[in-house]
Amino acid sequence: MDFNRISFRVRYAETDQMGVVYHGNYAQYLEMGRIEWLRDMGISYKKMEESGIMLPVVSLSLNFKKSATYDDLITVETRLKKMPLVKIEFDYMIYNDLNEILAEANTVLAFIDMKKNKPVRCPDYILEKLKT
Known about the structure:
It contains three helices and eight strands. The chain is of the alpha+beta class. It has a single domain, classed as Roll (Thiol Ester Dehydrase, Chain A). The longest helix has 16 residues, at 25-40. The radius of gyration is 16 Å and the shape is elongated. The mean pLDDT is 95. It is an enzyme of class 3 (hydrolase).
């Protein structure tokens, strides 16, 4: 179970009056990490949705250690916690360019059949990609 890293600069619009990244933006950073992790595994979230499966977040946990500010170069490290069944779980570490931990996070997402709006097992093609 591999991990992925993405890096990007904090944009001005992501900060509050104090120049600190607004806490609500971290959920978007985690999503960016997840999408890139899936892409690196050869899994297209867009194609998954087109095939009728969506992955809503059912749990999100964030533990802030240090503030990120405007123009900081931050890195989101995304790691699959365990093989998915009906849910898929990720752990994250967010670092600044000094390699200081800004936040630790965890998300749990459920595989949902979009037509029936019911949970389903992780698609076989995803499990196959994760085993390689």
